[in-house]
Amino acid sequence: MIATAALVLVALVLGAALTLLVERLSTPHHVEPGPAQAADVRHSLVIANSDRWLLPAGPVVALTGVALALVVLPFGPGLIGRDLGIGVFYVIVVIDFVVLGLALAGWGANTAHAVEACYRIIAQLVAYVVPLGLAYVGVIMMARSLSTVAIVEAQSGLWFVVLQPIGFVLYLVTGLMQSYRAPFLEPFAASIGGGVLDVSAGWSALLWRIALAGVLFLVAAIGALLYLGGATGPLLPGWAWMIIKTYALMALMLWLGRLVRPFSTAQMLALSWKLLIPLGLLNVLLVGGLILLGVGP
Amino acid sequence: MTSSGPSPILNDYGFVALVLVMALGLALLVAAAFLRAPGLLMRTPSIWGQFRFGYAVYALIFLAFDMEMIFMYPWAVVFADIGISAFLDMLVFIVLLGAGIAYAWGMGGLEWE
Predict the structure, then answer these.
(1) What is the pTM of this model?
(2) Over the stretch A51-61, which tens digit does the pLDDT of each residue have?
(3) Residue B82's domain spans which residues?
(4) How far apart are CA A201 and CA A95, in angstroms?
């Protein structure tokens, strides 16, 4: 049990490291890299008026959330922390500890940039959670289960990306919002000094790098699980397919995200509530109709 | 799947708790490793209280939608087994949600203040 738990943390650190590499390789030199790239890990930092507990709690809470979400990710038969019955629902809950951590650190730092970032972080959550959840619901309807293992098994015939293209597009957009990558970088914008990262250095900067790379890794891995058949494929072992699908999806998301002009927080909220949520409701109805017609597993 | 605890659920969430504790331990280790890092001091005035919440209406609508979406998860799991009546039930639900968005939009709720 302890060895498996340690393996979950090792998977997180390795996944985050590979994410940093993929992100660095796929980012052109003149473009602002992802938030995980730019944190000062050489110094420690004391902020005069900060809250003694909230500020350091931030990166710890975020890292914990990412580690907990990784528990239910299947990398092949038997290669999973635990197959919890509520699988993807659990993921959607614990992954938001990243938002809580960023908000705690932003508010706790008590500097203009960080508190501004705290408000933007929460606004970003308000924008992405509902359409992201609607994308999940479409997959759950076809898989008839919340379990991550059952969702992979349900795609043994046909991947859900074919059956639910609208849901997949919703997932790509909301996944970029959830992982704070371009064009949804506003909480980490250079205009507010990198937001929460402005008040992080040393150990907290290192934890933020792991957590913010880890959240992109998780978003891509869960996308591979929900829409690309997870850890299954011909010839290669399951874990190899899972890694290939995860990083291919990640590269696709990063590439698509950079084609679009960055969104301000207000524009992102408008995009979400005026386009993505109606689209998500439509997707749920379309998937329901498909199931009634006998399409799907 | 080995079962060492009194129930599989306790065993599963015991594992989740173990990962939680070990992640906290990892964070502590990282923090301890940086104890001797050269320190910088950032002096800024306290600015709590100078900020105003700019999206209160969004937050309220969000709260309603997030709660309503929680009801969709159990529905989605059993949808395929129940069939057309579940579809019609959810159609009513989604029409109500859609009307909610249309109302909020029409009243100017989806504006950044």
Answers:
(1) 0.93
(2) 989 999 999 99
(3) 47-113
(4) 23
